[in-house]
Amino acid sequence: MELAKYAFFWGCQIPARLPFMEKSTRLALDRLAVGYTDLAGFTCCPEKSLVKNFNKEQWLLTAARNLSLAERAGLDLITACNGCYSTLKSAHMQLRTDHELKKRVNYFLQQVGLAYQGALKVKHLVELLHDEVGPGKIRSYVRKPFSGMRIASHPGCHMLRPSSVIRFDDPLKPAKLDALVEALGAHSVDYQLKMTCCGGALSHAGEEEDSLALTRKKLLELQKMRVDAMVLLCPACFIQYDQKQYLAQRRGERLNIPVFTYPELLGLALGLKREELGLESHRVATGDFLARWEQNLDRFGEVKQYLDLPAVRRCFECGACVADCPVAETTDSFKPRELIGRLLEGKIEELLQSKEPWYCVECHTCYELCPQKFGMEKVFGVLKRLAWERGLVPASIKGGIGTFLKTGRLGEPDEKNRKKLGLEPLPSGGAEDWQKLLEICHKQE
Ligand code: SF4
Ligand code: SF4
Ligand code: SF4
How far is the CA of 346 from the centre of ligand 3 (A)? Predict the structure, then answer.
């Protein structure tokens, strides 16, 4: 475990309403050996839309007090809550750039034995995981990847905006949370409503129906796109998408998108058990998602021995050479890209049962044209190999392989016709020696 560089600022909502998010964050950070500590004395960040609008000075002074506690301990500050991040970072930036304001705030802080210098860093958990730990290191720690799972990220407004003070990721087209999702082996699905608000703040304003309308809109888009789950960090967003969705389900609405916080998915991928993470506290059922994931783990486990799945995903997204495949050009029965897509969805057994992978004639055109030197043929080669291991091979190929294994050849010389053409008999083949060689090899496997 690294020495603590961070004071973890949990805020009010996580320990009060989502203690399972706190638990998964703590367990995941421990597994990644990220050092952090809990500091005594923190209050609410305070919440921006309520406290700031009601009393700006109290908002700033409270935020500055929290920041100064971390500074006094010589630590940077980290938070997993979008609201806390937005408040603390905005206050920090404001105080760093307005000297008069900083002087006034320090005048009050000094009277309780504190001082705000402005030297600390304020980071969101996503910022820490992406910019410091890094997707590469996370990938290397993953034990149970989410291969084949389609996950939609909801960064939430206050993780990224206002960009003038947050400066962490693109406020309209963010990518860092998606990179972290992909580091867990899942496919982070891009979607139109990604950056729309969850609607939680409308609920504070007493507009429950309008608030739910925003929530519903996004959930319906994800359902239409056959997304497996939504991932987010903001506790307010979680309450909106999980608890409000559940209430809508109970009213008979056909919404069904399981919602996870990123530390929960990270914890699962790192090998933590669902019970340790407290997933039973979710309101929207997560069981089907987790069962599909377990199934995929079994299926992909075998495929992953032979294929680099992120490279297969890149190939699927590229598709540049598909139009040059001579077989795909000639027959509608072979759709290489669609087959690769089905593999990425985990439909491996279905592919092994079908004749489609055998349409690839291994002409190497895709390999030669591929700028990555990947080649779609690699995928079909692996599918053929697995199909062979299960005895799921088209009869014509099975016959050929049977002859080879028996004689070491794909056909015996036709001596009768060869003789008619005046050809001398060929020397005998080495079938017996060759079979001995195979036996030795087989015994040593
Ligand atoms: S999406 Fe809603 S709850 Fe989440 S950060 Fe934005 S306003 Fe807050
Ligand atoms: S190797 Fe297979 S997939 Fe690639 S171009 Fe040839 S037939 Fe198509
Ligand atoms: S084989 Fe190469 S060029 Fe063809 S789709 Fe895949 S990555 Fe793109």
Answer: 20
